[in-house]
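Hi Q.,

Before the meeting this afternoon, I wanted you to have the FE2/S2 (inorganic) cluster prediction in hand. No need to reply - just skim if you have a minute. The sequence and ligand are here:
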Amino acid sequence: MAEENKEKTSSGQNSSGDEKKQSPTVSGSKVVVPPAVSPKIAPRPAGIPARPVPTPAVSPAKAQDAKRAGRRSFLKVLFAVGAVLSIAPFVPWNAFLSGSVEAGSGTRYFSQKVVIDDLPKYGAAAGVHVNVNDLVTFPPNDHWVFTYPTSGDPSLDAENPDTFVKYELIRLPVELGGSSKQATDFVAFSKVCVHLWCSPNYNPEQTVNPNENGYQSPTGPSPGTKHEQYECPCHGSIYQIPDGLAIGGPASLQPSPTNAIPMLTLQADSKGNLFVFYPNYDPASEKTPQSNPSGVAPDGGNGTLGYGRDYLSYENFIKPRGQIPANPDDQTKVAP
Ligand code: FES
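Predicted structure with the ligand bound:
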């Protein structure tokens, strides 16, 4: 009791700050405990708005918990993405990533005219069937985009935003044989980077390409001034021409065959009209389960969109086919 009294302050509050209480009194043999006094709230004068109800403060511990929960969900997402990417080599990407690939033909494997998407920026080349003899409309060291498979209408193709059906047609610089008036003057690279699927662009010679976030190539025939490479604006992957091997940026650090950009095989007929030869989308040369009986060689393929390609397939399969005139039988199957 003495200790209890010691803890009380002169104001009637104990040291822990408890509310002041009325002391019990003794009346005869009874101990009378007075009722607790409730604090009086002064009436709000007219014209004074009510006090806002304060929002309960979040305790630091709770805030910490919330942060941890956020971090946990983020890690869960990262884990899920990692799991998907880890099985990437075993997923037949091209089978489901682009349903539109099947459109218009019933099959993804067919020969097709190379017709440039009908966009004003392509000038005289817009909506035109490429001819290898035309060095004016299709000059060396220049580039355009076409759609494969096509809808059959270059204007509709131009409106199709699906990069999995888009290819950069590059006429090689003269020093790489771009003026020989053969199908091999051209290469057709997928518009889907094998790193994280952004869309690379051919950079013929700009010091800085405004379409590539100012990215400046550190390599090339004249470093910093001449690119002549296929460059991805997102993380700086650089693919060399003509074989599409990644020689810079994150794509170049990926193991084969995920370090080369998928590309189509091109052929020209006797009049110089350019065609896509039946593609084989297998990334590695030894696998040809999707090969077309019309002539996919066992030693090459066009790769798998968004995944990669055995870069040697350019020399072993794609370029040699480009030196062969388009087969008239194949042209009868040109779609649409
Ligand atoms: S997506 Fe092309 S470099 Fe990353």
